[in-house]
Amino acid sequence: MTTKELDDRRKQRRRIRTVGYLGVIAAWAFSVGMGVLLEPPEWVRIPALFVHLMSLVVGLGAVVMVEWHGLLWATGWSTVREVVQADKTLILPIWAGLAGLLASGALLEPSLESPLTVIKLGCVLVLSLNGVALTRWTWELGRLPAKASFHSLPFRLRAWFIGSGIASQLAWWTAVFIGMWNSTA
Ligand code: HEM
Fold first, then answer.
1. Does the residue 95 lie in any domain?
2. Is ligand 1 within 6 A of the CB of residue 56?
3. Total domains present in the chain
4. Over the stretch 80-137, which tens digit does the pLDDT of each residue have?
5. Range of the domain at 140
6. From ligand 1's centre to the CA of 179, what distance in Å?
7. Per residue, what are the HEC states of 53-99?
8. Which atom of ligand 1 is nearest to the CA of 110?
9. Is 85 a domain residue?
């Protein structure tokens, strides 16, 4: 690929990411807005909770697997090719899980008067935006030689990956703990 073609691909990917950011913000705002407005009948609660938990298993399970592959690569136990493959294979369950959480959450009547729920919804937005931002680097990783080591990456990029992985895990698990806390409190 020539430098110009590479530049064009990067610009195209940037445009796709911008659409991704806007899409994620719109979906989040729609879910929260519907959650506040809707008053579903009582019988909806159990099926909605079931979909919520099922989506959580699928979405967070896939996120943990991709980040686990990233950790194995960072510690020299696997190759960048395996991280890229894991990302390609699991990207669909990640976004499908998140979509399921947003859709079912809207039917569970979140209370924005609870500060914990507001923090939880903030975490959902952060982890979604972080997921879009990561697509920039997973694409760049796909262009590295199959056996490139994590330590051969520039320091800034390594710091970005580690920071983004930690932010993702913190946001997901905070949302899980607050969800569980709210349903048992
Ligand atoms: C990453 C995204 C999310 C995660 C990890 C998550 C996690 C959870 C968990 C673990 C529960 C407890 C379920 C139970 O055992 O009863 C829960 C409940 C709940 N979630 Fe989520 N959730 C997410 C997104 C959302 C969104 C976007 C909304 C609203 C728009 C939402 C609204 C609720 C509500 C209202 C409950 C029920 C709490 C109660 O019983 O009062 N969640 N969530």
1. yes
2. yes
3. 1
4. 999 999 999 999 999 999 999 999 999 999 999 999 999 999 999 999 999 999 998 8
5. 41-184
6. 4
7. HHHHHHHHHHHHHHHHHHHHHHCCCCCHHHHHHHHHHHHHHHHHHHH
8. 35
9. yes
